[in-house]
Amino acid sequence: MEIDSIAKKLLFSTVRVDTELEDGSAGSGTAFILSHAHAMGNTPFIVTNRHLVEGVRRGGLVFTQTSEGRPAFGQRFQLNIDDFPAAWFLHPDPAVDLAIVPLRPLERAARDLGVQLYYHAIDSQRIPDAAAVRGFDALEDVLFVGYPSGVWDQINLMPILRRGTTATPLELDFEGRKQFLIDAAVYPGSSGSPVFVMRDDPLRPRGDAARTIWFAGVVAEVFFREEANQLVPGPVPAQNDNRFIGSEMIDLGLVIKSESVRELIDAYVRKWLSD
């Protein structure tokens, strides 16, 4: 398969997160790679939810290997990290469910083992500014990438692409926080999935030249119906947690706005420069 379109590149923007929790149970979730230009250059980071890294005994990040500059489909490299929570830099606001780790040291560890990683980083320039957000309609098509309920193509190591729509306007902060809702099927394992707004220009020929893609945010929570007329938002669990048995997911996902990812990276860079 030639990696010659936006959608195909997005297949290599995510990293599967496999974890062992403190109680010995297994979990899985989604992380993704975002590159950000700053005063010291351009740095790629792995981004996920903080609830996927806290309370974890050990974790592994699953990558596809490179062969002659192309993806080596099915050639897996899993980087295991024993003290998993300590590797991550958390958002300064404990209420913001985001965590990052710089990718370069992980790449060096892989190279030391003779492995080259294949990925396509999301450019932080794809985070919409205020003018771009004002141009969004209340209802926009969204695409998100990840490992819902742990499902993926285990042979080719490919994540799952899913579509939906915005359920609240991106121009507004849902419930007064930097977040919005999507109308889409969000399941355990979708936590940490990057969410994109995709807009096609009907006046241009079909294809990538007619398509604009914006990195809009990160899946963090899903709404459950626990009792009649009672809706409860909760973190998208890393595994099929027994406490959700009997609860009904209503296909509304809560997404942290991408500007919060940029805030987190800026906080990391400031700490890095001050050390």
UniProtKB/TrEMBL annotation:
Domain of life assignment = Bacteria
The record's annotation in InterPro entries points to: Peptidase_S1_PA (IPR009003)
Q: Gene3D superfamilies this protein is in?
A: 2.40.10.120
Q: Name one Pfam family in it.
A: Trypsin_2
Q: What is this protein called?
A: Trypsin
Where does this protein come from, organism-wise?
A: Nitrobacter winogradskyi
